[in-house]
Amino acid sequence: MASGELVRHDIEERDLPFGSALTASGRVSAAHEFGTVNPDHLPFATQDLVALDDALTEATRQTKIRFNIYIGDLGDDPSTGVESVFPGTPDAIRSVLIAVDPNRHAVEIRSGKRVSNRATDRVAQLGVTAALGPFRDGNLIDGLVTSVRVMTAAILSP
Asked: Whole-angstrom Cα distance, residue 115 to residue 118?
């Protein structure tokens, strides 16, 4: 799962936990794998974390909707799996979740009850479609960033 923390100016990048990056704006972006943390197996490069965090931050600022990312196993039925993951995401009722199960080649997008009138099924379909090209090329982060940006533009358009 990826999400941004509040801006802090008293943090040194070398003191950040595994899977975290300090962005240019002073925000801490963190990604982690579920289970035991293995410092020899970083899930993403720092520049990938920064790019994803910047996209999530900009989308949230522009739309006033929280965007969350989940990358991991969604089970045999990804649609059911995302339904169990979504309630545990930050501010779920006012957010959009982009869930990716790389092993099953599945992408699921859900929106919370309070934002479903703006983050509609059409917006979610645009987000999935935007992610597919980069995903096919093996670019997970590029696909997620593209999806977030396309969905943001669709939400902002009347």
From this structure: 5
